[in-house]
Each structure stands twice: as structure tokens, then as C-alpha cells.
Write a structure and sequence with these properties.
This protein is an alpha/beta fold. The chain is 39% helix and 25% strand. The longest helix is centred in the N-terminal third of the chain and has 18 residues.
């Protein structure tokens, strides 16, 4: 079954509220959408958002990588020789992980359709339903507390709170104000997005522990390259520490796991280059007794559907950060996963279950 065509389209969907972290502010979710067509009529979809502060990729670089490097290498090849396709995808082009991820999604979508299975079952089928957290953007303490209370009222019982943009005392005041509004029954995870140095992180997390703020975990407290600093934080606090930007590749995951530099790993398809490599990261982590979360960038329901299928397929993936589509003012996807509050369910259709993408 040959791949006949690989097309790319640009999309831009506004957010209903700006998304703010220590690294960036997003008002519009831009992306390159990939459409793969096979000779038997099967169509597969993929998505790659530009996240220059994390992956270094722009809309233009993603588009160029797919059209000028990846497309000539895989169009005309047999889809069922998928190991060859993935090897081509990951050896012809270094880095450019989001571009690879979009094509990887489309390949897996087509493969699962060919087997007449939903993708999560094709990949392993561990669970049929997920529950996502909801992210509280960096703002003033009062505004963050109001946002947190609003999300709890909508039924979310796990909040991912962004910190790391200002000084430690300001971050602690933010968490204290949130706890005043929502109480201590709601699970809070912090994401510093590389915003602290190791000494500051240990001080901040230690103070939060002393204040009894009941933080489940802290994600990427230090710069991505500082694995020694990440280990110092992990060893220096009781709170669980999760590696995010420090782990793009299976090799980086192996280094973090070998050195016990984090308690958990956040896998994102846009960092890993798609499901093929993401599976390896999770497998390494599982062997080492380290659980994983699957998260995302600011993506539409297309990219999140692929990530959710992967997350549902494996036992070792125990946390899910798939709130991005809930932040968008428009939905360009017909089919795919559906949301009911914090619960995510999968369509009873093969592949990603996506019928149409408005491009």
C-alpha cells in the first residue's frame, strides 16, 4: 500500500484567553497540518505547532522540513514497511522534532486504519478513557486564584499551575492565594518551565513544603541542559520532580534515568518526534520504575488526539495534560477525541478517528 501524497497546510486558531508561562505568551495557536493519502484511499492526519522557545521550529521551518526533506523520502514507499519509514524519518533530518511528529502521526493514523483499529488499540490499548488536568497561566496571584476556582467549578480536580516567571516569593504568594480559594482537596502540579536555578528551586520547593501547600510535583524547575542541577533539586526536596524540556530523545531520557535526575518524565510528541520515539522513552522509563506523563504544546484537537491515543495505550503513562483544545476559541477538527469536563473519550473509529480538518 503505497503513500501517494503528503500535503501541508497552515492553520491559525485564536485562544479565548492568552496562555502565559515563564517562556512565552500565546494568543493564537498556529500549526502546520499534514495530510497523508495512500493508494487505497486511506487518509492520515498530523499536526505540528511552531514552538520556537522549546523546539526551535517556526511555521516555515516545519513546512520546509516536511516538503523538501521528508516528503521526497517517503512518498511512493509502502506504508506497511513502516519500520523503514520511521528510520528514514529520524535519520534524514536531525532535530526538527515537531515536523517529524506531524508525519509520524499521519503514518500511525494510516496504519491503524489499515488494521481497522482505533490507534490506542493498535498501540496497545491499555485504557479507554483519560482525565486531563487544566493549566493556570502566570498572572497576578488574585487572577490566578480566580482562574483556578473557575476551573474547579467546571469539574477539574487536577490543576497545573505555571510559575518561574518572577521571584520565588511572588510564586509562593500565587500558590497560597490559589489554595485559599480552592482548598486542599484539589491536586496542584507546578510547572516552572526552566524558570529557576537549582539553589532557588530547592529553596522555593522547600518553603512550599514547610508551608504545607501540598504540591504533587514540580515540572522542569531548572534549565533544560542542567541535568546536574535537576538531580540536585530531585535529591534535595521531598516533592516529586518531573523532567520536561530536559528530555526530547530516548538518549536524553536514558541519561536522566541512569543518573536518577528526576522522579518522573513528561513526554510530548513534539519533543520526541512522534509516537515511534515516544514509545522508546516510555519503555526506558518503565524499565527503570519511573512513571511518565504525556503533555502537549498549544495544539488543536488534531495533535492532542494523537497524543491521547498514545497515552491511552500504555500502563506506565499515568498523568495526562491535554487541556490545550479547551483553550481555543474555534475547533477545526471533525471527529477525534471528545471532552466531557475533564474526561476524554475516544471515537469508535479506526486510526485517530478524524473525519475532517478545516484547513
Amino acid at each position: 500500500m503505497k503513500i501517494l501524497q503528503l500535503e501541508t497546510f497552515r492553520t491559525a486558531v485564536p485562544l479565548h484567553t492568552p496562555f502565559k508561562t515563564a517562556l512565552r505568551t500565546v494568543k493564537v495557536a498556529e500549526a502546520i497540518v499534514v495530510k497523508m493519502t495512500c493508494e487505497n484511499g486511506i487518509v492520515g492526519w498530523g499536526e505540528a505547532p511552531p514552538t520556537v522557545v522549546i523546539t526551535g521550529e517556526s511555521l516555515s521551518s516545519i513546512e520546509w522540513s516536511i516538503q523538501q526533506v521528508i516528503k521526497p523520502a517517503i512518498v511512493g514507499e509502502d506504508l506497511l514497511n513502516f519500520e523503514y519509514l520511521f528510520q528514514q524519518l529520524h535519520t534524514l533530518l536531525v532535530r526538527n522534532s515537531s515536523a517529524k511528529a506531524a508525519v509520524d502521526m499521519a503514518i500511525y493514523d494510516c496504519l491503524a486504519q489499515q488494521c481497522d483499529l482505533p490507534l490506542y488499540q493498535f498501540l496497545g490499548g491499555y485504557r479507554k478513557e483519560l482525565e486531563t488536568d487544566y493549566t493556570v497561566s502566570v498572572n497576578s496571584a488574585l487572577e490566578m486564584a480566580e482562574d483556578a476556582a473557575a476551573y474547579v467549578k467546571k469539574g477539574f480536580d487536577v490543576l497545573k499551575v505555571k510559575v518561574g516567571k518572577d521571584d520565588i516569593e511572588t510564586d509562593i504568594k500565587r500558590i497560597q492565594e490559589i489554595r485559599k480559594r480552592i482548598g486542599y482537596e484539589i491536586n496542584i502540579r507546578l510547572d516552572a518551565n526552566q524558570g529557576w536555578e537549582s539553589k532557588a528551586a530547592i529553596k522555593a520547593i522547600g518553603k512550599m513544603e514547610d508551608l504545607g501547600l501540598n504540591i504533587e510535583l514540580v515540572e522542569q524547575p531548572v534549565p533544560a541542559h542542567d541535568i546536574e542541577g535537576l538531580k540536585r533539586v530531585t535529591d534535595g526536596v521531598d516533592t516529586l520532580i518531573m523532567a520536561d524540556e530536559s528530555v526530547f530523545t530516548p538518549h536524553q531520557a536514558l541519561e536522566v534515568l541512569k543518573t536518577r535526575s528526576a522522579d518522573l518524565i513528561n513526554i510530548k510528541l513534539m519533543k520526541a518526534g512522534g509516537i515511534y520515539q515516544a514509545q522508546k522513552i516510555n519503555d526506558f522509563a518503565e524499565v527503570c520504575g519511573v512513571e511518565c506523563m504525556v503533555g502537549s504544546m498549544i495544539e488543536t484537537r488534531l495533535g492532542i488526539t494523537a497524543a491521547a491515543h498514545f497515552a491511552a495505550s500504555r500502563k506506565n503513562i499515568t498523568r495526562f495534560d491535554f487541556d490545550a483544545p479547551l483553550m481555543l476559541a474555534e475547533d477545526i477538527v471533525v471527529g477525534g477525541i471528545t471532552y466531557k469536563g475533564r474526561k476524554i473519550t475516544f471515537p469508535a473509529k479506526p486510526g485517530l478517528g478524524i473525519d475532517k480538518v478545516t484547513v
